[in-house]
Amino acid sequence: NGNSNNQPKSLRNVSNTLLKEDLEALIAEFQLLDAKKTQVVESTCPPPPPRLHASLCAHPEKDELILFGGEYFNGKKTFLYNDLFFYNIKKNTWVKSEIPSPPPRRCAHQAVVVPQGGGQMWVFGGEFASPDGEQFYHYKDLWVLHLNTHTWEQIKAPGAPSGRSGHRMVLSKRQLLVFGGFHESARDYIYYNDIYAFNLDTFTWSRLTPSGTGPLPRSACQMTPTLDGTGVIIYGGYSKSRAKKDVDKGTIHSDMFLLKREGKDEQEKWSWTRVSSSGVKPPPRTGFSMGLGPTGRALLFGGVCDEEDEETLQGDFFNDLYLYDFTKNRWFPGQLKRGKSEKKKRRRGKKGVEEGGQMEESPQESSEEPQQPTEIVKEIVTEDGTVMTIKEVIPAAQAAAEESEEEEEEEEEEEGAAAAPKVEPCPRSNAMVTVKHGKLYLYGGMFEVGDRQFTLNDFYCLDLQKLEQWEVLVQMDPKTQEWLEESESEDEGDEEEAKGGEDDDDDDDEESSEEESDEEEGDEHPPVKPGESLADYQSRTEAYWQGVARTNMGPDAKDKKVQKVGLAMAKVFFEDQA
């Protein structure tokens, strides 16, 4: 799958016990590679490889989508990305854009597009993970991609939120609002419920202090700006706490809050209000995807509900769609229409979906206690013969609608009308979604079967005005589904990585050029002498590695910090050479 291209050779056998300084050294190594790119290079390419926790945004000026960053886990190793892709909606083509001095590799960040200055994409926070996925570095940096000039710029402003990932960021008037998230270290973790505002006119951060009672600390919630631009809606999310020694308990939140702004400039005041919504609400879940649809509706897709005990963790994955109407303060299931059969239903007096995607209320939606969801099981056979059993939970309203549709389809078959095959994304969590011209675009994500994780790179589109059927833009390629069992040796893993790179014909040139650059990079570093100890090597090459660290960290970094990172980089290189 070509993922071996994403790590320099000097970093492929790093110790599993990485300290924070070691992670900073890894990040600095990657930035060294990025620093070799001095001009913008754009090339037509196949769809991006599988990933999750990336960002997908709609270009504010063009008919394009922008995909940035993300992560991939193959069962043994975690790969982080900072690559940038543009999808041309009209041509259905992808372009990879390599721009000098990009943000370091990351996932679980947030990206927001604004139309000013010819179009900009703002990126804040996120995390970098060690190859074994056990250690994390949380960013607190803010970047802007100038879309008209194709240049990255880091914005350094005091008072920014602390390092975090899993937070949410939206545009509200002329401010970027950042809420929640979490920070995890080897010893502990913390979840946030603070909220910050970044002013796009003055380039300044401020921490808001709203009145009222707000949400509990959480990450991965839904955060959507209100129609009038005076506030945001917060829904759901996830947090965990230590119930007893060494046992963590996860909590899936399903509450909703309104953060509202009153007044202007210096007289600006914020307040929290708890919202009690009506309608058919989504069953509890985390890892769902969110977006802002047309006609003033927020949308929620997929996710997973984990069933935890002290020894196992099993998840029910979803592929359903829900819409929240701001004006009515009401949830609606996003049921798809069925063309001719839908018209027959209306003639028979059944309530379904109005023209233009507007939903009518059914008796169940008015009920305070809706029926229980229906559980179905699907089996998918992969190319290698693995049978994946996917448990899917369908809301009661959708299940009832599909049951009635099945009865009508039988009637239609008796009349000689063939039912069209149903096309939809498989159940998943952490998919990337965005809305452009009233259409919902959905990319990638993941689901699990037993201990195996499947990271996806399929691509779908749904017209939110018509709500008729999903359009497949990119089908899932079974060849991208690499999974290395823990019992496999490191050598076998390396061989599989090499095979993955060789099988990807489209990346052959890129792979060879990156390997050459890796070899050149290795030759540039001071070599380890035979029999030399780590302490001796660090002492002998101290000036060199501190120079490398200073180059990557900038002139404003403290000398003590530069020294630590330099020693860590020397250690990483020494262990690899040894």
TrEMBL record:
Region (Disordered): 337-374, 396-425, 482-543
Stretches with biased composition (Basic residues): 337-350
Biased composition (Acidic residues): 402-416, 483-523
Highest rank taxon of the organism: Eukaryota
SUPFAM superfamilies associated with the record: Kelch motif
Any Pfam family the entry gives: Kelch_KLHDC2_KLHL20_DRC7
InterPro entries (alphabetical): Kelch-typ_b-propeller, Kelch_domain_protein
Name the UniProt record assigns to this protein: Kelch domain containing 4
